[in-house]
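Page 42, continued from yesterday. The earlier attempt failed because a stray header line got pasted into the input along with the sequence. Redoing it now with the clean sequence only.
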Amino acid sequence: MKIIDWYIIKKYLSTFVVMILLFIPIGVMVDMAEKIDKFKENEVPAEAILNYYLDFTWYFGNLLFPIFLFLAVIWFTSKLANNTEIIALLSSGISFSRFLRPYLISAGVIALFAFFSGMFIVPKSNSSFNEFHYKYINKKSERLTKNLFKQINTKEYIFVSSYDHIRKSANNFTLEHFEENQLTFKIQASSIRWVEKDSVFRLSAYSRRTFVDEREIYFRKSRLDTLFDFEIDDLAPVNYKAEREGGSVMINSHLLVRHKRWTLPFSAFVLTLIGVSVSSFKRRGGMGVNLAFGISLGFLFIFFDKIFSVLVNKSNFSPLLGAWLPIIIFGGLAIFLLRRARR
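This time it went through. Structure tokens are written below.
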């Protein structure tokens, strides 16, 4: 690589890091100002708050990734254009495609980072981030889920009137087992709870009805410790495994998240091409116009992403299309702007 390649790569990556370091503290301060009363009211430990804001950093960075990327590219590319450095490069015989090479290398570095964080860091951070909200910010009653009915496998259905994720317990539990569309036995309990110490389910006011031909065998016990072919968290409506086996439409939200882990790295290349295309030549109004245009496109990308996410979560819209359509739409925009910039 030539000196100009290293120069652009260093400028791109350093500006991207500066944008992250500039905006994330602002986001942290705004969030802290909003939640400081909740922290005092619920007497949240300092260690829990620190861990929360470490998770918030990944959550916020992942959410506004397109904005940071656009600003980084447009900021230093506009400076190059205003200093006529781009004109000098192109006038020396370097093609526009060759000029894009260091940008694409930089986008590749960021894409690898986005892929690694999206696969291994962000999911765990989001889980801890949401758990903190349920435990300290939102009321615990909001975490309760009500009137849940699910098919946990091909032969068994379960029902609970309410489920508490924190306590790992549910009320008014019912399990029905079918063989060839015939009910063979039915288990009921006033409550079911997972006992971590003994690794068993504890059922209170347990009863079982077994149906043999035309006879019914009834058994009852005040308390019973037993095992089932499911986990206690399978009772939660947001549990991936239970919904995948049960065929719930809510699986779409989980599939959408999985597909987005792949689309986010690709967005680094698409957004880089758009950023270079709109800021590689001088405009009346200077860098401010390019920045305003870049921020608008960044928020437009996020807007489209959220629109398709809502379609997936609220209807039978394909999660695959919901994740990839923003990339396809803005990829087409990138090609159009790139051809226009080359002229």
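Notes: The mean pLDDT is 85.
Reminder to self: strip header lines before submitting.
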